[in-house]
Every structure is written in structure tokens, then in C-alpha cells.
Design a protein that fits this description.
By secondary structure, the protein is mainly alpha-helical. The chain has one domain (4-206). It is 64% helix and 0% strand. The chain has helices at residues 4-15, 19-28, 42-49, 51-70, 89-106, 119-129, 131-148, 151-172, 180-196, 198-206. Helix 6 (119-129) runs antiparallel to helix 7. The longest helix has 22 residues, at 151-172. The chain is globular and about 50 Å long. The termini are far apart. The mean pLDDT is 85.
Length: 227
């Protein structure tokens, strides 16, 4: 059994695995941070390296959240911390572990503390905790993405959808399977995602946000043996 502090540290280290950077270097021989928007996230990977590399980076980022909240958090001590009030302590530990992975993704120790914006790792964390609600949210993300070609708009839409769906399920449909702590953390993480996308929101409002015009790699970005 592990202490909560160790769980958070392990989750942060897992979250720090720079999937997009690894994919860019292994498959294309480039540092993704030196191309496109300069962001080390799956969005920039999609835009610069195409859908295959972008999908692989997304899977890695999702996996980090799933591993932290769904696996590492279950290796907790027998006696969980008290003081969570009416919240379920086990759920809170899972959320804390997932949040630590998100922080690791955004500020990865393995990549000079310059990472992505945390959307996919957040999705992985919540997928481990509430798969049905998260699948709905991912469906909204994909719908907005393919209709608008704005990854940022799709991410923001998903950030609104998830806590809304949780609130409706718990307080209107009276679902006992959802702990109130999930809604609290979902709102906090959604706020963080909006803050991280402040520049994207400005570009969306100004009409000059970058679209994904094609799902093929950008010109000159040929892979070392495509997937």
C-alpha cells in the first residue's frame, strides 16, 4: 500500500511523460515544440504531424490520466485521510491522483516543465471515474472538432459538457453513483482549461484561430515509417 503523497508523486511523474515529444522524435525526428504553435500537446501534433501521430499522442495522454486515477490511486493506504466532509474519500484520492497527472502533463519534469494544456490527460482521468459521462463528452468533442476544425473550441466545449452532464445526472436525475467531489473537481479543471486556452479564446473571438485543415502531416514532415 502507498501513502497518498507517494500516489500523487507517482501520478505527477506518469503525467510528465511527454507523449507528443516522444512521438515527434521517434517517428519524425523532430521536437514538436519547435514547430507549429510550439506547444507539446496532441493538438499541435495533429496539426504538424497528421492524424496518425496525433492519435498516438492522444492515446498516450489519455492513458496517463487513466493510469493515475484508475490504477495508481487504487494502491492507497488502508486508512484514507479524513476531513473530506460529505465527499467519498476514495473518489477524492482518485481525483487528486488524476489532477497530479494533469499538472505533470502541463509542467513535465522530463521536458523542462514545458508541456501541453492538459485536456486529454484530464479526459483520461475522468474516463477512469465516470466512463459513460466521459464518452458523451468525448462525443461532443469529436462532433465540434469535425464541424468546426477548431481543436481549441472542441476542447472548451468538452470542458463545459462534462460538469454539466455530471450536475444533471446527480441533481436532476438523482444518480447515487456520482460523488459530489467529481462535480467540484470537474468545475475546477474546466476553469483551468479555460485559463490555459485564454490565447485560443482571444483568437477565436478575433476570427484568426488556427484550424485543422487536413489530417495529413504538414508539408515537409515525413515520418520514419508511418504507423
Amino acid at each position: 500500500m502507498l501513502s497518498v503523497a507517494v500516489i500523487l508523486m507517482l501520478s505527477y511523474l506518469v503525467g510528465s511523460i511527454p507523449g507528443s515529444i516522444v512521438v515527434g522524435k521517434l517517428l519524425h525526428g523532430i521536437d514538436i515544440r519547435e514547430h507549429g504553435s510550439g506547444n507539446a500537446g496532441a493538438t499541435n501534433t495533429f496539426r504538424v504531424l497528421g492524424w496518425k501521430s496525433g492519435t498516438l499522442a492522444t492515446i498516450v495522454d489519455l492513458g496517463k490520466g487513466i493510469l493515475a486515477a484508475g490504477v495508481i490511486a487504487t494502491l492507497r493506504v488502508d486508512v484514507l485521510p479524513s476531513g473530506f466532509g460529505f465527499w467519498d474519500a476514495a473518489t477524492v484520492v482518485c481525483l487528486m491522483a488524476g489532477a497530479a497527472a494533469v499538472v505533470g502533463h502541463m509542467y513535465p519534469i522530463w521536458a523542462g516543465f514545458k508541456g501541453g494544456k492538459g485536456v486529454n490527460t484530464t479526459a483520461g482521468m475522468l474516463l477512469a471515474l465516470t466512463p459513460a459521462t466521459m464518452l458523451l463528452t468525448m462525443g461532443i468533442f469529436l462532433l465540434v472538432l469535425f464541424l468546426s476544425r477548431y481543436v481549441s473550441l472542441a476542447s472548451l466545449s468538452a470542458a463545459v459538457t462534462f460538469p454539466s452532464a455530471i450536475a444533471i445526472s446527480k441533481y436532476l436525475l438523482h444518480s447515487d453513483a456520482l460523488d459530489a467531489s467529481i462535480l467540484f473537481f470537474a468545475l475546477a479543471l474546466a476553469t483551468g482549461i479555460f485559463l490555459a486556452h485564454a490565447s485560443n479564446i482571444r483568437r477565436l473571438l478575433d476570427g484568426n484561430e488556427n484550424r485543422i485543415r487536413t489530417f495529413r502531416p504538414a508539408r515537409g514532415m515525413k515520418g520514419r515509417g508511418e504507423l
